[in-house]
Amino acid sequence: MKAFAVTRYGPDGLRAVDVADPVPGAGDVLVEVRAAGINPLDKLVRNGDFKLLLPYKTPFVIGHDVSGVVTAVGGDVRGFRVGDEVFARPRDLRIGAFAERIVMDAADVAPKPAGLSFAEAAAVPLVALTAWQALVEIADVQPGQRVLVHAGAGGLGSTVIQFARHLGAHVVTTASGADAAKVRELGADEVVDYRSQDFAEVLSGMDVVLDSLGPESVAKSLTVARPGGVVVSVVGPPDPALARHLGKPLLVPVMGLMSRTVRRRARRLGVRYAFLFMRADGARLAELARLYDTGVLRPVLDRTFGFEETLEAVAYVEQGRAKGKIVVTR
């Protein structure tokens, strides 16, 4: 089948290839891919940034967001049948959405929201699960708390704004002035124009900050969180808790060293720092799907590309100017 695989780690390592058709195991579902979402995580995995934690063996098909139709189920699978429309964020070491077909663990898969197209559904799994795991599992956001969401017009930020508002938070976001109306429509109560304002100079007392920009932003975010608040980053540096969560105790000191500076600064400020490497969760995704079907949440797409344009779509995401999710469709 046709697919896009990492043939070697690095910026030019993604290639169009022909690979064998995947075969489902007893607990798997085989899905004909109708659409695949593209995420910054794809770039990081392609470049080998997570080689220590995720030992993929090249060549491997990439892609962390998928929607499609079930074409076969393993003998132990209950709850899915051939013909079901589904979506998923396949678990690490079993990714592969940039292909004509993908095999996934049935536990990672959920029924596609009936009100969403395949393209819209493929834009949802990773960002929706990230929003839940950051705001509920790590930060335990409560009604009335102040939540700062960086890059609110982007694929992740636009989802986190909506979910934070759903939880009853007072939502602050950074975005360009041109996107202010858009992010307010999504649920932001305050907008800081990053082109003309430094958020660290105009904000304070945040209960929760979700960062998706990088180390410099994380360092500044610590200063706007209240004592007892939490800064959650999805781009690092990773902390020792991640190595423990992934069952790699030998990497605990490595992760500790990588995040030592930011954790020390957080302690001095009385703030908690947490790195989030989101995980697949089909049951939670099914619950989140209901929020999309009822209109509480909605996908935000920038544009779609054809499957044969996957390399161009990945390059577009890397430019960092997308206003929402990028999806390839078949």
Distance between the termini: 13 Å
Largest sheet properties: 7 strands, mixed
Q: What is the CATH topology descriptor of the largest domain?
A: Quinone Oxidoreductase, Chain A, domain 1
Q: Tell me the CATH architecture of the largest domain.
A: Alpha-Beta Complex
Structural class: alpha/beta
Given the structure, what is the number of helices? 12
Taken as a percent bin, the fraction of beta residues is 25-35%
Q: How many separate structural domains? A: 2
Approximately how much helix is present in the residues?
25-40%
Name of the CATH first level of the largest domain: Alpha Beta
Low-confidence stretches: none
How large, in whole angstroms, is the Cα Rg? Answer: 19 Å
Supply database-style keywords.
7-stranded mixed sheet, 330 residues, 6-stranded parallel sheet, alpha/beta, Rossmann fold, 2 domains, 12 helices
Overall description:
By secondary structure, the protein is α/β, with parallel strands linked by helices. It folds into 2 domains: 2-123 and 299-329, Alpha-Beta Complex (Quinone Oxidoreductase, Chain A, domain 1), CATH 3.90.180.10; 126-275, Rossmann fold, CATH 3.40.50. 32% of the residues lie in helices and 27% in strands. The protein has 12 helices and 16 strands. It has helices spanning 40-47, 118-122, 125-138, 155-166, 180-186, 199-202, 215-224, 240-245, 252-258, 260-269, 282-293, 310-318, and strands spanning 2-6, 14-18, 28-38, 60-61, 65-73, 85-88, 101-105, 109-111, 146-149, 170-175, 190-193, 206-211, 225-233, 272-275, 301-306, 325-329. Strands 3, 5, 6, 7, 8, 15 and 16 form a 7-stranded mixed sheet that branches. A 6-stranded parallel sheet has the order 11-10-9-12-13-14, with helices on both faces. A 3-stranded antiparallel sheet has the order 2-1-4, with no helix packed on it. The longest helix has 14 residues, at 125-138. The two termini are 13 Å apart.
